[in-house]
Amino acid sequence: MDPHRNHMPGGSPPSSSPSTASSSPNPTSSHHHHHHHHTTNNNGHNNQQQQQQDPDPMHSWYESVSKARSRIHLLSSLLPPNLSPPLSSLADDSDNPALSLLSSHPTYSALSSSLSGSPHDPLCHWLYDTYLSSDPHLRLVVLSFVPTVSNLYLSLLHSLSSDSPTSSSLAGFEAVLLSLYSAETKSRNGKPLLVSIPDLSLPSLYHTPRRSSSDKPNPYANPNPYSTKPNPNPRPSVGLISPPLEPQTAVRSTKRATIVGVALDCYYKQISQMPAWSKLDFCRFAADWAGQDCPCKSEFDGPDEIAEEMGDLGISENGSGGGSSGAKGARIPLPWELLQPVLRILGHCLLAPLNAEEVRDSASVAVRCLYARASHELVPQVILATRSLIQLDKRAHESARAAVAAAANVGSNSNTPTKAKKPEILLMSK
């Protein structure tokens, strides 16, 4: 039954009511009038659906800019007024205020140094409300502060003494982390994160042999691991990256590492759009979280390689140094739920070609500190992952040195004086 059949514009009663039917002198005209309204309503409904499906891009852009400007003006009232450039210029003098805020290093430093994490911290409230907005650029701004929020929360939590306030004093940080966790839980829709592992017995990753009728799988047959013959019945191997996420309304101690790890995973998904100072801070925090200062972190390197890199960065022996936010981390427990996104982010900072040199060098130090920590705690999966990153880093440095040496040789050869050649005399026959 058509839901618009008995609907009349203007809030009129339905045409099937007894009073309306008895007052109509001509049933045919009444039916024609009803059909005309039915067609009009259908056209209006279709036009409304089309407008919803094809929104005006200018209206959407103006709404996004207005929302970003209002959030920036609110932030300017929460930060010190001596910022240069002032936040009002970011809001009023840019066609995309959210991206201008994302690329503002003074704003990042001022907000990072002003965070307290208390339940009434206005900056945590600003981060929470901004992430709940639907604007993707504003969400990028909040994600750029995930390393700082995670570091302050975990470091303060694990450095609380008996006379210090409990973790309820960090409810501001927990609210920000829970907003990211809830959004990711909703987007995953109760499904785990899986990865398909290829069957190495096949000739290539894209080769799938046809299964004949005679090749029925035998569940009792043990495959010969030394056979070079391809397996006619390859079994797809699936690895579990993350189990389904459960909705959480509070940060419990048993779920703390998972919630922070999911927030860091959200950061990793947008890491290509994160500013360099945010990545640099994360690498410094990861080295502080490892907290391992021993000679074994340099066992894969020559005696001068890491010392030279640390000297260029101004990094002290414990892996910390001058950064953007000025905050320092503390040695904390590192369960696998937290280490997985940490290693992914460090892998990007270490190997992505467009990263700044200081980001790559800081990631190199952090990976070695995590390797030393895992070696002392005997965590095989972390040892394997960090060793792989160290080897890739060494090969990248060796390739860079070879390229510099080759360029120097070419330059020296071009500057070497050579004897002038005698002009060639060509004999031509007349």
TrEMBL record:
Residues 1-60, 207-245, 410-430 are annotated as: Disordered. Residues 17-29, 40-53 have a biased composition (Low complexity). Its main location: membrane. It holds the Pfam family Hyccin. It is found in: Cell membrane; Cytoplasm, Cytosol. Keywords: Cell membrane, Cytoplasm, Membrane. Coiled coil: none annotated. One of its GO terms (biological process) is protein localization to plasma membrane. Residues 30-39 have a biased composition (Basic residues). InterPro entries: Hyccin (IPR018619). It comes from the Eukaryota. The keyword Membrane applies. Signal peptide: none annotated. PANTHER family: GH21176P, HYCCIN RELATED. Belongs to the Hyccin family. This is Hyccin.
